[in-house]
Structure formats: structure tokens, C-alpha cells
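Work Package 4 report. The design task specified in the project plan requires that, given a folded chain encoded as C-alpha cells, an amino acid be chosen for each position. We show below one input record used in the internal validation round.
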């Protein structure tokens, strides 16, 4: 049985099977431009040996789409705060919802919530502010059903800055809460 007949038989018998094919064109049949000289695949109308390549995109259920979205959101583990504030902002709700849902679904998982502040203010004030920020995140998660035993909080105040630039944008990066699993 020649290769074309074998290929046709396989395509009829296994229509969903993805096949990889090697070209039977030798180096001597290839010209300098990389195209083959002489024969073409004729009946299939393509220059890659008659094998059409491509893939089907999997269709995901809405529940699976939501699970993947929450998984991506959980990669975001930093919640930013306004200057001298400890209220969770609405733009962080989606991130915290993803973390909260994960923790509710996995009651054996624990999270450490770190509170941070920029360096403006006294060290004592910034420790207290970092603690208020961490507690605000914990309270938000607890409101979603996360058990208090799953959460621990710590405040680093100004001691662990992300940005040392002493600019407004640098200070903004340092005013944060961090969820650590």
C-alpha cells in the first residue's frame, strides 16, 4: 500500500487523530529557495505533503472559565492602599474575591497577610498602619467566609519597601498588603 492510500485510510478511520508527517523529499529534490522541484502533493492542494496542520480550540464551560480567571487573579497577591488609609479599595475586590474563594474551597490552606507602609511617618505609626491594612484584608476575606484560623497577620511597617526611590510612585508601591501562601 503506498503512502497516499495509507494516509487516506487513516484519515477515514481516525478523523480526530492529529498526525505529524515527515517529508519524503530528499535534499537533492530541494532547490536553493527551499521549495521542492518536480512533484507536488497535487490532490491535496498544499505544499506540505498533503497534511493540513492546525488545531481546535477547546471550548471551556463557564465554571472552568471562572476557575481559570480566579487562578490568574490569585497570581496578583498585592493589595495597594491610599496614603495614610487602611480601607480596601473597590478596584481590589476582584483579586480578593479570587483569594477568598480559593481559601473557602481549601480550608486546610493558610495565608499570611503582611501589612506595609511607606517611610513617611514614625516607625511606630507605620507599624500600626501596616497592621490596620493587614487586618482590613483579613476582615474582607472573613466576610467572604474564610475562617480566621486560616489567616495570620504581620505588620512590617516601613521596614520592607518594594521601591527605594522616595518618589510619589515609589511611596505608592510601598503602601500595600501582601498575601503569602
Amino acid at each position: 500500500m503506498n503512502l497516499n492510500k495509507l494516509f487516506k485510510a487513516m484519515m477515514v478511520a481516525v478523523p480526530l487523530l492529529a498526525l505529524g508527517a515527515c517529508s519524503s523529499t530528499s535534499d537533492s529534490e530541494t532547490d536553493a529557495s527551499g521549495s521542492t522541484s518536480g512533484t507536488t502533493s497535487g490532490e491535496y492542494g498544499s505544499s506540505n505533503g498533503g497534511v493540513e496542520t492546525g488545531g481546535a480550540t477547546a471550548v471551556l464551560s463557564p465554571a472552568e472559565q471562572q476557575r481559570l480567571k480566579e487562578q490568574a487573579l490569585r497570581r496578583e497577591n498585592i493589595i495597594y492602599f491610599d496614603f495614610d488609609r487602611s480601607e480596601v479599595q473597590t478596584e481590589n475586590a476582584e483579586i480578593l474575591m479570587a483569594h477568598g474563594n480559593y481559601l473557602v474551597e481549601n480550608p486546610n490552606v493558610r495565608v499570611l497577610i503582611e501589612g506595609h507602609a511607606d517611610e513617611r511617618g514614625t516607625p511606630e505609626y507605620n507599624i500600626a498602619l501596616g497592621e490596620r491594612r493587614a487586618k482590613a484584608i483579613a476582615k474582607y476575606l472573613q466576610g467572604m467566609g474564610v475562617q480566621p484560623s486560616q489567616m495570620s497577620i504581620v505588620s512590617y511597617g516601613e521596614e520592607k519597601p518594594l521601591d527605594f526611590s522616595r518618589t510619589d510612585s515609589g511611596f505608592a508601591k510601598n503602601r500595600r498588603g501582601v498575601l503569602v501562601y
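Confidence is low (pLDDT under 50) at residues 12-46. Validation will be extended to a larger panel in the next phase.
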